[in-house]
Design a protein that fits this description.
mainly alpha, 19 helices, globular
Length: about 500
Amino acid sequence: MPKQNNDYRSIFKSTSLFGAVQIFNILISIIRSKIVAVWIGPTGMGVLGLLTSTLNVVGEFTKLGLSTTAVREIAKTESRGEAQETNLILATIQKVVWFTGLFGVIVTLVLSPLLSYLAFDSYDYTLAFIWISISLLFNQLSAGQLAILQGFRKLKLLAKANLLGNFVGLLISLPLYYFFRLDAIVPVIIVSSFVALVVSWLYSKQVKVNTPKLSNSEAFSRAKGMLNLGLMLSLRGSITLVAAYVFQLYLSHVGGIDEVGFYLAGFMIINSYVGMVFNAMRTDYFPKLSGVIDNLQDVNKIVTNQSIVGVLIIGPLVVTFLSFLPLIVRLLYTPAFLVIIAFVSWAILGVLFKTLSFSMGYVILAKGDSKLFIKTAVFFNTLMLGFNVLGYHFYGLEGLGVSFFLYYIIHFFGIKIITARHYNLSFDKDLLNIFLVLFGLSIATFLATYIDQFVFKYVICLILLIVTIVYSYHQLDKRVNFKHLIKRVFKKDNE
């Protein structure tokens, strides 16, 4: 039991560390979103969204999944104590990221007229794509530096790099948006990526490694294995981004750029604010899982423990957002964005299912099973795109929320069947019971938001929120033992 508690404490500590980072990043994102909403409006948010989404699609394909495979390889060799092999991997990464970054720049430059036409139905943004192409190089170099920190599980350095990069990026973007409004979008994209590169470089240099010198041919020869898997990851990521991008293009042509802005604003709440736990979880979870991926018992234990901690943290967040969504939307954006409430309310119900499928899905990635990875990506992203188009076509933004909810449920059951069949992955009853309780509380809160009487509605929602928080805290405390954890923290501080 003490060993089990240590496993939960390790998961909770790493999740808490990066949860704190994500909270800080969310505060930055709130400020940025508020500024974007007020100073450049839904139209500006739509333009920003289409530019960054297009850039992400190109970047996902051209980076060849190198940062993810680098984390996997570093974690595996580190867990085996193979220092020399680790140093060779680092030297390979440092060489290859330059080529993949420049590849992204060239592709964007060549395709800039086409990208402009696809995104905006005109060539007016060709020059904008030419300018922001340089950010792909900055992003790839930065990803390579952060992969080193993540692979070595230098979590505090990684957290600091994320914090400082986002904070400095915000400080620079504020005056740009204030003085130049819509014209600031392109400079902000470029400057933010450059700042992130500088910060990641400063922190990655604190990891003392002895990397040998490799020629270009040696680096690419050694990178073949990483790039083969990376190409599959890149293709999978590209499929996901293309599906989301195609839907944004559909939405832009059917509903207009303002509608894209509303969709992106709602998606940001679901994916960034509520989904912050996923970003916190994956940082330590993936390298840890990669290190034990050949041991079925350890894999089952890590996936189950990660799922329990994730659900217990996500549950109160879902209930909180459901309870106070109108207030949150006003705080994050402007009253014009209140139209997204129904969309977000439905979609956020599926996030608990996403928590489970998220934990299971990383097993496929850690195994390096590229064929299965691609098959699942094509199927589920095609399904999601079809659901979203149908949902929006028949019921607008609320239908879109319903489609997300249904998709998350189907995705969970699909990943559960796939990982059970291929890897004998299983969950215990404890996780199932916790999930059902928290999902039931989420459904009750969702239904309570439809109560017409204002005071009665919020009293019910507040009671449900308190019950959810108390339940989650109790379940976490049984596993983590907060008193013991706090004593250890204070003991370290006093030493």
